[in-house]
From TrEMBL:
CDD domains, A to Z: EcfT
GO terms for biological process, alphabetical: cobalt ion transport
Membrane association type: Multi-pass membrane protein
Listed name of the protein: Cobalt ECF transporter T component CbiQ
Gene that this polypeptide is encoded by: cbiQ
Location(s), subcellular: Cell membrane
InterPro entries (alphabetical): ABC/ECF_trnsptr_transmembrane, ECF_CbiQ, ECF_transporter_component
Keyword annotations from UniProtKB, A to Z: Cell membrane, Membrane, Transmembrane, Transmembrane helix
Organism: Gordonia polyisoprenivorans
Top-level taxon in the UniProt lineage: Bacteria
Principal location listed in the UniProt entry: membrane
The keyword Membrane belongs to this UniProt entry's keyword annotation: yes
TM region positions: 20-38, 44-61, 68-87, 107-127, 139-159, 237-257
GO cellular component: ATP-binding cassette (ABC) transporter complex
UniProt xrefs under Pfam families: CbiQ
Length: 258
């Protein structure tokens, strides 16, 4: 959780977005996503506006779309679901390229793809410009309960460790002649999952004891050298949440003009 463990999605930089206090960026991200989700799916122009807002943030943060694009693959399962909806939904039908497609299904699929894409892109932008070490104090500044903040941050930190542990266990099994795709190996895979759970639990116990022995009281203090951004001023709040305000205005305009 310290400065020596940067998240793999984070891109070090010195832009205005990187220097912005993390708590303001969290609020901006949440409001932007809510604005996108609240926009009627039957309208198309508001989503172009959301994309322009995101692109403007990328320019300021010096993030290339070529860096964002490969990491967007996480939404592929939702895209597959969206592609199937026009065939599975009922209601009014329309012929497209010789195929009979459901109009409500087309709108539903479009809504899933565009809203999911914008949400994932916004989340990646936040992750790329915010070090993981800034999150505990940022959540505390926003009033998140002290019992939840350490759990959330520890989860982010140890997901990477568990992924590496899974990779090591898989390599060890293959080195011993295991074939992960063979049906008869399902028992070995189940035992591996159980072993991973036990290792994770034991690691959590050791980490908790180590933290308690160092004086951890359940709250994460602001430590100079670990937290690099000062508490946001009123002027910073007004400037940094501009993308969220723009997204909210676009969503409101969409409902008015609907």
């Amino acid at each position: 959780m310290g400065a020596g463990h940067p998240h793999p999605v984070y891109r070090a930089g010195d832009s205005a977005v990187h220097r912005a206090p993390a708590e303001v960026k969290i609020v901006c991200l949440v409001f932007f996503v809510f604005a996108v989700v609240a926009t009627p799916r039957e309208m198309f122009w508001p989503y172009a506006g959301f994309a322009i807002v995101l692109a403007a943030v990328w320019v300021v943060a010096r993030i290339s779309p070529a860096w964002i694009a490969p990491r967007m693959l996480i939404e592929v399962p939702f895209v597959i679901l969206a592609v199937l909806l026009p065939f599975a939904e009922g209601g009014e039908r329309v012929a497209v390229a010789g195929l009979s497609l459901s109009v409500p299904g087309l709108y539903a699929g479009w809504g899933i793809v565009i809203k999911g894409t914008l949400g994932v892109a916004a989340s990646l932008t936040f992750a790329a410009t915010t070090p993981a070490r800034e999150l505990p104090v940022a959540l505390t500044r926003l009033g998140v309960p002290a019992s939840i903040t350490p759990i959330f941050v520890m989860m982010l930190r140890y997901v990477d460790l568990l992924t590496a542990e899974i990779r090591r266990m898989q390599i060890a099994r293959v080195a011993r002649g295991d074939s992960p795709r063979a049906i008869h190996q399902i028992g070995a895979i189940a035992k591996g999952v159980g072993a991973l759970f036990l290792r994770s639990y034991e690691r959590g116990e050791r980490v908790h004891l180590a933290m308690m022995s160092r004086g951890f009281t359940g709250t994460i203090p602001e430590m100079p050298g670990v937290v690099t951004s000062a508490r946001a001023s009123a002027g910073q709040w007004l400037v940094i949440v501009t993308p969220a305000l723009a997204a909210t205005a676009i969503a409101a305009a969409a409902w008015v003009l609907r």
